[in-house]
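As noted in the main text, all predictions were made from sequence alone. Below is one such record, for DUF1501 domain-containing protein.
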Amino acid sequence: MPSRSHSRRHFLQFAAVGAGGFLVAPHLVLAQAATDRRFVFVIQRGAADGLDTVIPYADPGYARLRGALALDTAAATRLDGLFALHPALVETARLYAAKEALFVHAVASPYRDRSHFDGQNVLESGGSAPYEAKDGWLNRLVALLPKATGEAIAISPTVPLALRGGAEVGSYAPSALKEAPDDDLLQRVQQLYAQDAQLHALWSAAMEARGMAGPAVRQNPAELGQLAARFLAQPAGPRIAMLETSGWDTHSAQAPRMANQFKALDAMIAALREGLGATWANTTVLVATEFGRTAAANGTGGTDHGTASVAMLLGGAVQGGRVIGDWPGLAPGALYQGRDLQPTTGLDSLIASAAGECFGIEPERVARTVFPRVAGVKTLPRLLRA
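Prediction:
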């Protein structure tokens, strides 16, 4: 069990207040921190299509395999002579132009089957096979940081697998109930708990979290980004956060659905960037999914479960303006099992390299500690600004 004996931190267990009382809400950990760096992991649940995200428009196999699903890249942002960015990723394109966005193509975790549950388990646990690890790679990363900087937060009703483990972390989600009508009710509850050593401390902590989160919001993507930024921008706030997105499983009608998914992701990133203000310069955001989609379109205007996809690194700390990775091509003989984009870069390698550079820890050490069950994790050339 994680230790709670910390001299410089407040451990908050309640975080939401409603008109009908208080919720036993996800908790939040705050701490004084010795680093200005922030690391944010955004998971795309449902297997996002990497070939629709960073489009290999100049690969002759792309139009052949996608047919009517192939995007007209006339409106897309040309990244280089091979790749273009989906036109709905407007803010991401701006970050790329500002050299604050980097894409890694043909990337995958060690998982090679096509189950969402198993794939997300491997992605979040950092294991080599489903369910072999009980804790998550992000929690093991937290444990590598100095105690004063080792706190993380998930903007989620529960702590996701990636953040579970021995290191103390927390999560926060706004209440679905109406806000308390005025502060008088909150003050009376405060007085009610004043003589109870345990409840008084918990209630006070909840009020502190409430003040940091700001007004309760219904979480659309932009509001989720704003909420995360309010925590991360605090001088004594968490240095690591995880955000969850869903809806990436596009077996049918992929074109309009992916456009909406990208607009939502773009809005969340834009809100995060704006909310962080000057802190954005010290922030690294990793966006990744459990696996990719089939290279060819199916008969219902979508794609099915595949293997390799694309990952994004965004943020002011990123040495961006690049698409990296070993592009395997889309020729029939180059596809994994004759149907999927061939994985050429390990997602573990990307995580170890980006997280290590972010917090000034040797990426090789991060790889050994965060991914102890994965053999041959190779670190990547420099990803962040020195």
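The two ends are 36 Å apart (CA to CA). The chain has a mean pLDDT of 85. These features were considered when defining construct boundaries for the mutagenesis experiments described in Section 2.9.
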